[in-house]
Amino acid sequence: MKSSINIQTLTASILSSVPYTIPGDETELRQILKELASYIRELEKELAETSHSNFGRSCHQEDSSEPNTSGKGNVDKQADEPCERLKQLQHSNNRYYGLTSNIKLVKSAIDASRDTGFSQEMVPTVKRPLFWDVQPWQILSESRSEPLIFPPQDLLVNLMNLWFEKTNPFYPIFHRVTFEKSVASGLHHHDRHFGETVLAMCALASRNSDDPRNFDMYGTRIAAGFIWIRQVNPVPTSFLEAPSLYQLQKLLLYAVFMQTTSMPYSSWVLIGLGIRLLQDAGAHRKRSSPPSVSSELWKRVFWIIHFLDLSYSIDMGRPRATTSDDYDVEFPLEVDDEYWALPGELAFKQPPGKPCRSNYLIHVFKLVPILESIHCTMVSVPRTTSRCKLEPDVSYRKQRATNEIQKALNEWLDAIPEKLKWDPQHSDVLVFNQSAMLHMVYYFYRIFIHQWSGLTSPDSLEICVGAAHSCVHLMEANFKRGLASPQTLLTIANAAIILLINIWRSKRLGLNVDINLEMADVVKCMGHLKRLEQRVQAAGRLWDTVLNVVYISDLTDAYNLAADAEANSYQTTQSTADIVPASSSTFNLVSFGQLSQFWDTTSTQEYGSPAENGLGLNSRHLPLQIDIWNQRCFLSIYLQ
After folding, report:
1. 170, 233, 451, 508 — which has fewest CB within 10 A?
2. Which is nearest to 558 in space by CA: 589, 586, 533, 584?
3. Name one Pfam family in it (predicted).
């Protein structure tokens, strides 16, 4: 930018504490004003160019089938505000989040709160760097060809046991007998792909371990597993050979691990690459050969990656990597792993009358056609079809699509195997946990489709609120049995946001709703996130998000009452319970005052564990008034 006047020097002089002397010469003054005006115009031009970034487009993207015929100026102005707040909390302005991403739900919460009568001119933003920033231990080198460093033998055995007890029932990508034999033979020291697969497994298992050797190097419990995952390269360095099963297994594990860190966006990219690698290996096609351990594991890996690709794409409002037209591979066999390696005709045959533990996995896969319908209807770029022309009413089309998908979801729920039907008193902990997960998946997508059809509809909001309460009850039942899974994080956070929207709507319309009762479930959701944030970054990010929304809703009194009641209830339960999760030894919902050190989102200070930061102290209350933070700093985004 050419100028005869140094604009930066002039600006500093004008804004200095020393009074600026206005030139007496009219010609000189006119030149200064001209230079300033030119500088402003240049800045406006540059700003206009940057407004065409991917993020900007995603914020303003409209459904082409829904023309805006009135109030366009006001709508655009209102839409700009959440976009700007979102940009402030994005790691990169160039990341795209579609209209169905969970950002939209938070935006709905902000829009709803405008009508509560609460002044939002000055509100806080809680964004703790420990949970939002990319930490030093997460920055990986581009080249990782150094010798692999494995856990000491006793820790390796412990992590393998934790994996097969806690995680493999939900991501059964290993055959235990075969895997343990391979490790015992030292294959992980000779086959790098298998070695990295073992390390990726150790990284995920570390989150269920209290052994400090999993995180001591970085000084914080939340870094558990990074010492192992840092050595894993999920992307092939060469495509000369067809991908191996080990390569797909480690890619899958790596993506699942990263999904709950401060870099969740990497998982969607990796899962998409996984689809391509599976296709390269031919794992997407049906095979006529007899079943084998390898062929069954290939099928499991394919279906898990396909399911994750769909769910991640729906959550982020992005395209998926494949469709049902591209594959014909069958579901894995419903045979427990211990019957895979039996001799002769007994192999791969489930004994008559013995329930199969893999029923859970198969029923999850049966959700895929429904997720494909959700993605096609609610995420994909809208097209003008013959049906659109016959049904020009957009609201009607949305309601019809919602009803069709809801019917399919109900049929899927009704078809859950008998042993996995919901029974809060079930004696088998694994079956109980699998049942809870299936039902939480159902309620998550029940909320999703009705949120898409419009939370302004009383019927849709009522359905979402009912589903949210059901999620809370399932979460509580899990916690009482000593179970707390990171897989439920987004479901619980969404439930809390839905309940807050319901409170706002009730206040605005003067409906007779027990705010304290509703807030009690919000606090339970936050308590669940608080317990898990000691081990998973995503939980801390979501807790910050919900806490911000609680404050902007002007519900601090109700929050404080509910927090007291929940803490007292927890202490009573803890004193009488037989099983209490190791990660839940303290129950604290922290005050805004304690979090003030984290509100500066530009801070580069590094922080240790939540307990080290005063997040495990006694106060649970929010102050009644905080007036030092501008509303424009507010809007935490969801884990994508």
Report:
1. 508
2. 589
3. Fungal_trans
Mean pLDDT of the chain: 77
What's the pTM value of the predicted model, to 2 decimals? 0.72
CA distance readout (Å), 299 to 194, 334, 477: 18, 12, 33
Compute the distance between CA of residue 640 and CA of residue 632 in angstroms, rounded to an integer. Answer: 22
In tens, the pLDDT along 86-132 reads: 344 444 444 545 555 566 566 666 666 665 555 555 555 677 777 77
The pLDDT of residue 598 is 37
Contact 515, 503 (CB under 8 A): yes
pLDDT at 255: 97
In angstroms, rounded to a whole number, what is the distance separating the alpha carbons of residues 438 and 638? 22
Q: Measuring CA to CA, which residue among 371, 369, 460, 434 is closest to residue 108?
A: 460
Closest alpha carbon to 128 in 500, 586, 537, 493: 537
Statement: residue 627 has pLDDT above 80? no
Return the residue matching tokens 């739900």. 105
Domain boundaries, the chain: 1-47
pLDDT top residue among 117 and 340: 340
- What is the spatial distance between Cα 33 and Cα 605, in angstroms, rounded to a whole number? 41
Beta bridge partners of 122: 630
Collect all residues with Cβ–Cβ distance below 8 Å to 463 and sequence separation of at least 6: 446, 450
C-alpha distances (whole Å) from 474 to each of 320, 337, 433, 488, 594 are 30, 29, 10, 10, 30
Q: Which pLDDT score, from 0 to 100, does residue 480 have?
A: 81
Q: Please give the pLDDT value at position 141.
A: 55
Q: What angle do CA 114, 115, 117 make, to 5 degrees?
A: 95
User: Rounded to whole angstroms, how far apart are CA atoms 178 and 341?
Assistant: 9
| Token code pair at residue 301 | 């890996």
User: Residue 31 corresponds to which amino acid?
Assistant: Q
Strand partners, 630: 122
Query: Residues near 482 by Cβ (< 8 Å), separated by ≥ 6?
Result: 429, 579, 580, 581
* Residue 35 CB partners (closer than 8 Å, separation 6+): 3, 4, 5, 7, 10
Q: Cβ(35)–Cβ(5) under 8 Å?
A: yes
| Residue 152: CB atoms within 10 Å | 10
Q: Give the separation between CA 174 and CA 166, rounded to whole angstroms.
A: 13
Looking at residue 296, what is its pLDDT? 97
616 pLDDT above the threshold of 70 = no
Residue 352, token pair as written in the block = 């008559």
